[in-house]
Amino acid sequence: MAIMRVNPTRMELTRLKKRLQVARRGHKLLKDKLDELMKKFLDLVRKNKELRETVEEMLMQVHQNFLIARAVMSSEGLDAALMLPKQSISLDVTTKNVMSVDVPVLNYKTSNPDETGIYPYGFATTSGELDGAIATLSKALPYMLDLAQLEKSAQLLAQEIEKTRRRVNALEYVMIPQLSETIKYITMKLDENERGNLTRLMKVKDMMVEQARKAAT
Asked: Residue ranges of the domains in the chain?
């Protein structure tokens, strides 16, 4: 690991030791954050898998009912029955903070909460399979919105996990080792300078003692 280009002084040594202390504290905090993000991400993935299976099963049932309805009804009659929707939905999107990540929260309201209001046609000229398809599709809507919310939240958490992991790796494998090596280098330089100064002082002392001895004789 390459050392940083700094002057080997005690002031610089003190400054780098403080930076190393802050880097280690930041590394610990980011590591804890990464662990918590992974825990929440895996929980979201598990819920997403269960919800996706439920939604796919409901949509498969809707598809089958539509196929049967198309077989027993004319194309014109089916198109006319579904031409004018009777119910509308308003969607409100807000956010909530999860480990410094703003994840979406989807809330919806229907214009007609009555279950009979979901059918945009009369029952005289339509098949029961079409009624079943519309009813199942109406029940699947909340699950589909929850699924969209979970998948977007998981995507945002995955991005934050990747960003946090890069920061943790940068601190753990680059900054902290670099600071440690630089501190070690400066410490060795200061010790070497101190030994050199001590050697010079001892030589000066020996010279002064020798001069005093000669003067005394």
From this structure: 10-210
Q: Residues 146, 51: contact at Cβ < 8 Å?
A: yes
How many Å apart are CA 113 and CA 145, to the nearest integer?
17
**Residue pLDDT, tens place only, 108-149:** 888 765 655 677 777 777 788 888 888 888 889 899 999 999
> What was the pLDDT predicted at 123?
72
What are 26-35's contacts with CB under 8 Å, separation 24+? Answer: 26/171, 27/168, 27/171, 27/172, 27/176, 30/164, 30/167, 30/168, 30/171, 31/168, 33/99, 33/100, 33/164, 34/161, 34/164, 34/165, 34/168
Tell which CATH architecture fits domain 10-210: Orthogonal Bundle (1.10)
Model's pTM, two decimal places? 0.78
- Other residues' Cβ atoms within 10 Å of the Cβ of residue 42: 12
Average pLDDT score over residue span 33-41: 95
75-84: per-residue pLDDT in tens?
Answer: 888 888 888 7
Helix (H, G, I), strand (E, B) or coil at 124: coil
- Give the span between the Cα atoms of 177 and 59, in whole angstroms: 54
C-alpha to C-alpha distance for 51 and 150, rounded to whole angstroms:
9
